[in-house]
Amino acid sequence: MRNKKICVTGAYAVGKSSLVEQYLGARQPGPYRCTLGVKISRTGIPVQGRPENFSIWDIQGSEDSDYMNVFCLREADAFVFVADGTRRTTLYHALSLRYLALDMLGPIPNVLMLNKADLDILWDIPESSLYGLARQGVNIVRCSAVTGLGVAETFTGLAAEIFGKPDPSSPWRLEAAYARAPVAH
Ligand SMILES: Nc1nc2c(ncn2[C@@H]2O[C@H](COP(=O)(O)OP(=O)(O)OP(=O)(O)O)[C@@H](O)[C@H]2O)c(=O)[nH]1
Ligand SMILES: [Mg+2]
Question: What is the CATH number of the domain that holds 54?
Answer without folding.
Answer: 3.40.50.300
